[in-house]
Amino acid sequence: MILFRRPSTIELPAVLDMVFRGVDRSPGRAIYAEAFPAEYRRQCDAVAGHEGFCIVASKGPKLLGYALFVRQAWTSTTNYELSSIYVISSVRNQGLGTELLRKGLSECLTLGGDSCSVSLGVKRPWLRQFYEAFGF
After folding, report:
1. In angstroms, how far is the first alpha carbon of the chain from the final one?
2. CA–CA distances in Å: residue 68 to residues 100, 110, 122
3. What tens digit of pLDDT does each residue of 8-22 get?
4. Which of 43, 61, 76, 130 has the greatest CB tally within 10 Å of its CB?
5. Exposed, middle or buried: residue 74 (CB in 10 Å: 0-12, 13-18, 19+)?
């Protein structure tokens, strides 16, 4: 059975490793932290639940994916940005990304979010369709 939930404190390092491998395909978060210190801190704060939140998909002790939402602090309303979403390759195309996004958007509303945005830096028609299906 696959569970969708917030990560435990013990899982935070594993989630961060997944975030920074999934985001930039680098060897790990140390390189990312050195290259982009402000963005690294922002992502870490969101994973830890300080400036946003993270939803993980897990089966037993294995993490299968995550959706990371960062609170936008420069606005007068409560806005969130879907910073990144990732599902490990062995379980892709089984609806985990869709469910992670659904759970994350529901959590945005629960936390009083007025809106949620996403930015696409590259042209991937399938990814654009995925987000548009959710109203982005």
Report:
1. 29
2. 9, 16, 19
3. 888 887 887 777 765
4. 43
5. exposed
